[in-house]
Amino acid sequence: MDLPWHLYIMALLYLLAGGNHFRKPGLYLKIIPSYLPWHKTINYTSGAAEIIIAIGLCIPAISAPTAWALIALLIIIFPANIYMYTDKKASLNMPRWLLLLRLPLQVVLIIWAYIYTNGLPF
After folding, report:
1. Is residue 120 one of the residues assigned to a domain?
2. Are 29 and 40 in contact (CB under 8 A)?
3. Per its UniProt record, what PANTHER family does this chain match (predicted)?
4. How many structural domains are present in the chain?
5. Looking at the domain assignment, is residue 29 inside a domain?
6. Pick from 77, 61, 63: which is nearest to 110 by CA?
7. What Rg, from alpha-carbon coordinates, does the chain have?
8. Do 36 and 80 touch, CB atoms closer than 8 A?
């Protein structure tokens, strides 16, 4: 079973993003909501999850369930996007309009992942 080329693009994006959690942890530590404990653990765990998911997306036998795992991860990390929008320190000096745009972008990423769950015939 061959996987579509755009799935590999998605996997590459998550592989790079996951690796970045280890390369530049300070960037991600700033956007973890302050009410959550263990910021370093959350950062490294989410980075490792992104890397594992990126690899799993490329393995045909587990690609569909891995896409479901990606959807779960995107939902779990959504509070970070809200936190970036509502807290000036977490905004990384990004313009407010861009931070606001990130919120529905998360829905687009979820839909993109859903396509690979075999839930849609694309």
Report:
1. no
2. yes
3. DOXX FAMILY MEMBRANE PROTEIN (PTHR36974:SF1), MEMBRANE PROTEIN-RELATED (PTHR36974)
4. 1
5. yes
6. 77
7. 15
8. no
In a domain, 121, yes or no: no
Note the pLDDT of residue 3.
85
- Is residue 100 within 8 Å of residue 85, measured between CB atoms? yes
Q: Quick one: CA dihedral 110, 35, 96, 13, positive or negative?
A: negative
With CA atoms as reference, report the closest residue to 1 among 116, 120, 109. Answer: 116
Q: Exposed/middle/buried for 93, CB within 10 Å: 0-12, 13-18, 19+?
A: exposed
- Summarised one tens digit per residue, pLDDT across range 40-66 is 999 999 999 999 999 999 999 999 999
- Cβ burial, residue 48 (10 Å; 0-12/13-18/19+): middle
Q: What is the mean pLDDT of residues 31-44?
A: 95
Look up residue 36 and give its amino acid.
L
Domain that holds residue 48: 5-115
